């Protein structure tokens, strides 16, 4: 959406009524209308928000509602957000901040690093209010966590650059997310870090009904390629590239392989239909290829007649040419 168009749609009366406060991220809203107008303002705020939110009031609205729920600044949350595989993701630092701010903890989360090098692990522990014993979680080794994310074309670990630059900090961020999902999932429900989302979402490769029907038509057309009138094949006979006797043998063989199919006229209908019904006119119409098809559509009989006439002409030329060669 164009920024100028968004600016035109901002209701300045409603937006101007938004109360500036230090209670929830610097602003205080009284209605959903004010929230929606503020989302428009965020969408036209330029460099104050990341590129995926510029001129995108809908995405700004989603960020704004999340910020209100977390009691954080909308612009601070916006600048910690990313788009990964068509999903909104957040920096690990923000997710950790949400856990610290919203989880019912006696104090802040604590951690310790155990092991050396790629065998380092992080144990996170925290105690809820009203409880005496801490809850803890120990992560997988640094090597295993890196391998699970894979490496990009430059050879660096995918996801956060902290996996390379500050691996112990990233171990803590990763372990604290898992700790929160285990012991207080309501705090970060539906929130994901950039390195948690897969590189590619599953693609549905199941054929639709239309694709299935088209494939069946292509298969049927391929199976009938050697059956019926073939003008190109007949031209090769006329030009002397194929012996007429050999062509006749091929046609007889193709007819024999056709099985016990019922006689069908050029219009594509059963020639016996009129004969069985006792209506000689119906039989005549079927042979001529005219009339209407059973489903009420116009028959292709006239096209078949033209194709048959062309075949007769080419066949006569082939026969004449063959007789001339035999003389």
Describe the structure.
By secondary structure, this protein is mainly α. The protein folds into three domains: 79 residues, no CATH class; 118 residues, no CATH class; 118 residues, no CATH class. The protein is 49% helix and 8% strand. Helix 3 crosses helix 4 and helix 6 packs across helix 9. It starts with a helix and ends with a helix. 20% of the residues are buried. About 13% of the residues have low confidence.
The major pleated sheet works out as:
3 strands, antiparallel
In angstroms, what is the radius of gyration? 38 Å
Q: Please tally the helical runs, counting DSSP H or I stretches of 4 or more residues.
A: 15
Helix content: 40-55%
Q: Name the shape in a single word.
A: elongated
| Count of extended strands | 7
Mean pLDDT reading: 74
Features:
mainly alpha, two-stranded antiparallel ribbon
Kindly summarize this structure in a few lines.
This protein is mainly alpha-helical. The protein has 3 domains: 1-79, no CATH class; 82-199, no CATH class; 209-326, no CATH class.
């Amino acid at each position: 959406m164009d920024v100028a168009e968004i600016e035109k749609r901002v209701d300045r009366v409603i937006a101007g009524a938004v109360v500036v406060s230090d209670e929830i991220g610097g602003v205080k809203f009284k209605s959903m209308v004010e929230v929606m107008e503020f989302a428009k303002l965020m969408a036209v705020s330029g460099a104050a928000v990341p590129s995926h939110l510029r001129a995108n009031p809908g995405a700004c609205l989603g960020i704004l509602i999340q910020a209100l729920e977390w009691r954080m600044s909308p612009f601070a949350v916006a600048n910690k957000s990313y788009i990964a595989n068509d999903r909104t993701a957040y920096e690990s630092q923000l997710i950790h901040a949400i856990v610290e701010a919203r989880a019912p903890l006696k104090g802040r989360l604590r951690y310790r690093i155990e092991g050396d090098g790629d065998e380092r692990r992080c144990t996170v522990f925290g105690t809820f209010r009203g409880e005496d014993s801490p809850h803890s979680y120990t992560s997988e080794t640094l090597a295993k966590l890196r391998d699970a994310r894979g490496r990009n074309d430059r050879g660096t670990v995918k996801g956060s650059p902290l996996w390379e630059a500050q691996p112990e900090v990233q171990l803590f961020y990763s372990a604290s997310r898992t700790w929160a999902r285990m012991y207080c999932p309501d705090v970060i429900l539906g929130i994901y870090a950039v390195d948690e989302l897969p590189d590619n979402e599953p693609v549905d490769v199941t054929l639709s009904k239309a694709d299935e029907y088209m494939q069946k038509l292509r298969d049927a057309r391929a199976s009938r390629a050697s059956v019926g009138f073939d003008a190109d094949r007949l031209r090769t006979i006329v030009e002397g590239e194929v012996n007429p006797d050999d062509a006749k043998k091929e046609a007889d063989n193709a007819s024999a392989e056709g099985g016990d199919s019922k006689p069908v006229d050029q219009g594509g209908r059963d020639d016996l239909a009129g004969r069985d019904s006792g209506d000689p006119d119906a039989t005549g119409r079927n042979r001529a290829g005219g009339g209407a098809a059973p489903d009420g559509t116009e028959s292709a009989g006239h096209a078949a007649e033209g194709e048959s006439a062309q075949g007769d002409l080419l066949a006569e030329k082939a026969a004449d040419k063959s007789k001339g060669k035999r003389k």
